[in-house]
Structures are given as C-alpha cells and as structure tokens.
Write a structure and sequence with these properties.
20 strands, about 250 residues, alpha+beta
C-alpha cells in the first residue's frame, strides 16, 4: 500500500509545481519581452533490491520557450524591439552581464540608459550614459546619437552603441529575475547582425488559451492523485481491521 501512496504523492507534487509555472506565465501574459517557462517532468524507475517495479515522477531541468512574441508599435522613440533573434545586454543587480528582450527603455536622472525595470543598458565600454541633450535617436544597429544642448537640428553626435548579442538557446539559462544568462557565467561578444526596431515593443510569447487548458488538465490530474491517495488509505484501514479480527 505504501508504494502506491508514494507513487500518487509524487504525481500530485509534480502537478502542483507545473501549476505554479503556468500561473506565473499567465501573470506575465502582458509583460514586455517575457519568455514563457516550460514545465517538465518524466517518469523515473526506482532501482534497488529486486526488480524496479515502481516509477516516480521526477522534475527535469526547467526550460524556456524561445518563441518570439508579437511586435507592438508604440511610437515612443525610447521603445526598442529586437528584430528576429538576439538580446539587449544589461547589467544585472549582482553585477553580472544578463540579457533581455524587453526594450522599454528610459533615462535616469544622471542620463543613464535604463530598462523599464531600472537595469543599466550596456554599451561598448560599460553602461550607456547620455550627456545633457535635446534629442536622442537610436540606429538599427544600436548606435545612440544625441543632439546636444545648443546645437542645430541637424547636428547629431554618436555617443555609444547598445550591446546586442545573439547567443545560442542551449548556452542560456533563465534566472528567477526573468533575465537570461550564459550557463557558463561568461559574457557574449556583441553581434553586428542583430538589429533594433525603434518605436516598437515585443509582447509576451505566452499563449493564454494553451496555458489555461493546461492548468485545467493539471488540476484534474492533481485531484486524481489525491483521490488515489485517499483510496490507498481506505484500503490500508480495511486491511488493519481484518487483521484485528483474526
């Protein structure tokens, strides 16, 4: 009886973890540049003395859906979307280099170029910082140009260039902060082939309908495992009463 109890317990546990992942995806269905998390589990036979007669549910390494979200035109000159593959390099709170596709940029009080969540955007030599200016423009290759105070409308000066990278999906891992990082903890060199679209933002790649359907399926799976555990308990109690009679 105890074997059946552990089997259903692991199944219910994995269903709860998958529910948490899908709930987080749904909560970020409207988050700029969000990449959905994938729930993964597999059956694992228990090896030991005798034959491997039991199979438990085991969590796999978490995965990320690298499908690109839809582009939404905003008309804001500080909004950037990565065309096709690639990422914008940012400075993470822990000081490491991280990558994001959320291009809702803003300017800090000291002219620093920040993401919507307040992370410094990296350029050729560290975070991008703009001097006092009247206007700022971004090139498709990430070049940041400004018209300084007192200059003519046609006088633009290139200040820096946003670091755009294009690492392979298998080289990346998603952190709890939603940022992508290299698995080896290193830095990725800039890729001149990556381009930006000014005045656009990339939406979340979460499929709301699929996530809702999956959550309903997981809820039923969880209920089935809980009912199975209750059945095992009832059978155990019945067996105990029979032994008392004897």
């Amino acid at each position: 009886m105890d074997r059946a109890l552990y089997l259903s317990m692991t199944g219910a546990s994995q269903a709860m973890q998958a529910q948490t992942i899908h709930a987080n995806n749904l909560a970020n269905a409207s988050t700029t540049g969000f990449q959905a998390d994938l729930a993964q589990a597999r059956s694992m036979a228990v090896y030991g003395p005798g034959m491997p007669s039991r199979v438990y549910s085991m969590t796999e390494n978490p995965g990320t859906d690298f499908t690109r979200g839809p582009l939404q035109q905003t008309g804001n000159s500080l909004d950037m979307a990565v065309k096709g593959e690639g990422y914008i390099a940012v400075l993470a709170p822990d000081g490491s280099e991280a990558y994001t596709r959320a291009g809702d940029l803003q300017l800090g009080v000291f002219g620093e170029l920040l993401t919507g969540s307040g992370l410094p955007v990296l350029g050729n030599n560290g975070p991008v910082v703009l001097p006092p200016h009247e206007n700022v423009e971004f090139g498709a290759d990430g070049t940041v140009s400004v018209r300084e105070l007192g200059q003519g409308a046609q006088v633009l000066a290139a200040i820096d260039r946003i670091k755009l990278v294009n690492p392979q999906p298998q080289e990346l891992v998603k952190g709890t902060d939603g940022l992508m990082r290299r698995i080896d903890g290193g830095e990725t060199p800039a890729d001149a082939q990556v381009e930006l679209a000014s005045g656009y933002l990339e939406g979340s790649n979460v499929n709301v309908v699929d996530s809702m359907v999956e959550m309903i399926s997981l809820a039923r799976n969880y209920e089935m495992n809980v009912k199975f555990m209750q059945t095992v308990q009832q059978n155990s109690e019945s067996s105990a009463r029979l032994l008392q009679i004897q």
